[in-house]
């Protein structure tokens, strides 16, 4: 067996042999009350309701969410640390090759897909409460759709796998078309929304809900509409977003800061999120994207990427999101350090603090949730899609957009035509959703990626971006494993 096949096979076998271990390592384990099992094999596993719960828990443990660095480095929102690992500035300057380590979301997504396939394929044979079984399967379909949605947006058409793989057989699968991948995503989400509950209580908060399925489907339709003003997907996106809005389950927190507090886990604004637990199973997004070498973080700030001036300067002074999203100064041992978006020294750089858990005492112990879909995003999807559908903003579109703006402390808009309203929504998405894995995808679906990157010249970027860069290359390691894969054009 070649080294590369051993690597990918390792990912695949993890879905079976280490599914329970993964639950121990993921914060949802304690919140979703999954009892870990041990010494399991295919012959003894997937027999009971507890086995089914553990298998689904493994799906949540491997939830599909691209590294936020991909979004930051390939958009115009951030400047990576320009020394150290050469792959970072190469990605930022669009000198991208299939060997770049920071594009390897591909294998992690297929780990998630394989675990979901296990639940979808194995649970029908388990004797357990039928309603609970169908809910588990619906949750797995939602998570599988999410993985494929991220894959298709990053790489284009990818292999479709709907049955589990626990050996070398079945690894060599050709790429499906983009339309075929989206058809699977739509089927899974439509099936999931028919079964998933409106909400959960207690330890089950954080699981996929009906609103999460509808909301992600709204974003799928928004993406599929692209730049086509006559696309029927605008109506579908608006309709699905409105369904979420009308459920009465989700709302905006009174302040923007509350949406990113530790108390917001499982709260009214997070339609779907990746949950963490402080100093138990956390992340390092605050420290990692914090001020380089600053002593205010456990282990010191890493400064992976700093805030781009063209993003920072877009915020009005009275916009509450500016102070919540970015750290512009800090004090330590009686000394105050003022930060800048232009100073080349990363120790003096305005940095991201939106998801920083200041209560964490360990490196990698931050417990703030990572939002995959917030209600603010749903409101902005509705505002954009209905404007496109109607050829201009309706009263309801204004209400959706202005709810987001007024929560941020800035004035409501009125009297805009179709073009001006569209531009206003695009701007609002950038200001509201920065550091949440949205900017690159928004630039691509609106046809603005090349223009935006070419205009971003700070710190000598001079990006060599071309049309083919709207898709990332399939990682070379995965190309080596599967000889049926064809590389994206231009790489």
TrEMBL record:
Subcellular location: Cell outer membrane
Residue intervals of the RagB/SusD domain: 309-491
Protein's UniProt keywords contain Membrane: yes
Family: Belongs to the SusD family.
Transmembrane domains' residue ranges: 7-26
Lineage of the organism: Bacteria, Pseudomonadati, Bacteroidota, Sphingobacteriia, Sphingobacteriales
Database matches in InterPro entries: SusD-like_N (IPR033985), SusD_RagB_dom (IPR012944), TPR-like_helical_dom_sf (IPR011990)
Gene3D superfamilies: 1.25.40.390
CDD domains attached to this UniProt entry: SusD
Protein name, per record: RagB/SusD family nutrient uptake outer membrane protein
Keywords from the UniProt entry: Cell outer membrane, Membrane, Signal, Transmembrane, Transmembrane helix
């Amino acid at each position: 067996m070649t080294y590369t096949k051993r690597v990918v096979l390792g990912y695949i076998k993890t879905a079976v042999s280490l599914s329970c271990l993964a639950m121990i390592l993921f914060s949802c384990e304690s919140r979703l009350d999954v009892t870990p099992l041990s010494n399991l094999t295919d012959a003894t596993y997937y027999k009971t309701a507890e086995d089914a719960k553990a298998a689904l828990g493994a799906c949540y443990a491997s939830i599909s969410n691209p590294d936020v660095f991909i979004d930051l480095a390939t958009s115009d929102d951030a400047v990576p640390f320009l020394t150290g690992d050469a792959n970072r500035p190469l990605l930022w300057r669009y000198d991208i090759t299939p060997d770049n380590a920071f594009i390897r979301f591909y294998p992690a997504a297929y780990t998630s897909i394989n675990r979901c396939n296990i639940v979808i394929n194995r649970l029908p044979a388990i004797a357990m409460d039928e309603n609970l079984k169908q809910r588990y399967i619906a949750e797995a379909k939602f998570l599988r759709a999410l993985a494929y949605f991220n894959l298709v947006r990053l790489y284009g058409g990818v292999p479709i796998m709907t049955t589990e793989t626990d050996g070398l057989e079945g690894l060599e699968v050709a790429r499906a078309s983009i339309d075929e991948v989206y058809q699977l995503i739509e089927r899974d989400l439509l099936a999931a929304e028919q079964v998933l509950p409106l909400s959960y209580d207690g330890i089950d908060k954080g699981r996929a809900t009906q609103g999460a399925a509808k909301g992600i489907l709204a974003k799928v339709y928004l993406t599929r509409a692209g730049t086509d003003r006559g696309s029927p997907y605008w109506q579908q996106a608006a309709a699905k977003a409105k369904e979420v809005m009308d459920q009465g389950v989700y709302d905006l927190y009174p302040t923007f800061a509350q949406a990113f507090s530790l108390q917001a886990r499982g709260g009214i604004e997070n339609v779907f999120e990746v949950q963490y637990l402080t100093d138990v199973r956390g992340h390092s997004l605050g420290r990692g994207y914090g001020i380089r070498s600053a002593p205010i973080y456990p282990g010191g700030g890493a400064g992976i990427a700093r805030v781009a001036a063209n993003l920072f300067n877009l915020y009005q002074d009275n916009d509450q999101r500016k102070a919540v999203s970015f750290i512009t100064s800090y004090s330590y041992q009686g000394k105050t350090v003022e930060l800048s978006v232009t100073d080349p020294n990363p120790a003096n750089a305005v940095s991201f603090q939106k998801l920083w858990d200041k209560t964490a005492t360990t490196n990698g112990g931050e417990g703030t949730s990572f939002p995959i879909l917030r209600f603010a995003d749903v409101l902005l999807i509705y505002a954009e899609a209905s404007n496109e559908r109607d050829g201009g903003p309706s009263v309801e579109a204004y209400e959706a957009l202005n709810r987001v703006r007024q929560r941020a402390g800035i004035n409501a808009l009125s009297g805009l035509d179709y073009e001006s309203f569209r531009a206003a929504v695009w701007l609002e998405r950038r200001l509201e959703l920065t550091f949440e894995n949205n900017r690159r995808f928004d630039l691509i679906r609106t046809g603005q990626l090349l223009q935006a990157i070419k205009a971003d010249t700070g710190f000598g970027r001079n990006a060599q971006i071309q049309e083919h860069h709207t898709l990332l290359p399939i990682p070379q390691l995965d190309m080596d494993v599967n000889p049926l894969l064809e590389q994206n054009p231009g790489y």
